[in-house]
Amino acid sequence: MESIEKYFAWLEQHCPDIASELHGSANSDRLDRLEEKVGFRLPEDVRGMLGMRAGQQKCSESCEECIGAIYGLYFLTPDEIAAEWDLWADFRSDYTPDELADQFDRHEEVFAPDVVAKAYSKPGWIPLFRCPGRHDYFGVDLQPGELGQYGQVINFGRDEPKKYAAAASLDQFFAKLLSWGAREIPSRTIGAHEQVMKLFDTDDGALLFNRFYDLAEGQEPALHIPGDHLS
Description:
This protein has about 230 residues and is an alpha+beta fold. A hairpin with a 5-residue loop joins strand 3 (about 125-130) and strand 4. It is globular. The protein has helices at about 1-15, 15-20, 30-40, 45-50, 80-95, 95-105, 170-185, 190-200, 205-215, and strands at about 75, 110, 125-130, 135-140, 150-155, 160-165, 165.
């Protein structure tokens, strides 16, 4: 939980405009209802995160114009998590398990066998952060492979055919974001706001997908050091 809390403090210090879009805490009853909806126990760090900040204010139906609070990714509220989960549950209900396996799952890939399930969609994949304008997510994996961990953070969605574990837990995921932020954003307040806005909007908000994909391939992603031009 330490890294999650530090990330929100870092965001408030360096880009208060985005931090001001975050909702307050979700109470236990609201989180219990979310667990009842998805049918899985949420990891403590997920409940803790939503207990600190319950998502981001919605700026448009598709979120295409949003600057996502999670290093460019839109931070879903508990209600939006449930709605996105329902969207995929409805998709799965249109097919038998054999049809899902034949028409969808067999086309999927994983970087590390038995860490993440080789599937297009699973009930235990809980979306938390969405790429603006896309149904692609980072979320927690509550149906991991035999070598995976309950609550690991994975990529999934309509345009994420190759799955990987970005972090063993949500807190470790935020620890990585903090390590990048410490290198990329000036520690001084002056100039940090503009740098954060430009950085988070890089690749139309898909910056984290590209970086964690590089890491999954064994490559260190290129960072934007202060003074670099961000288009």
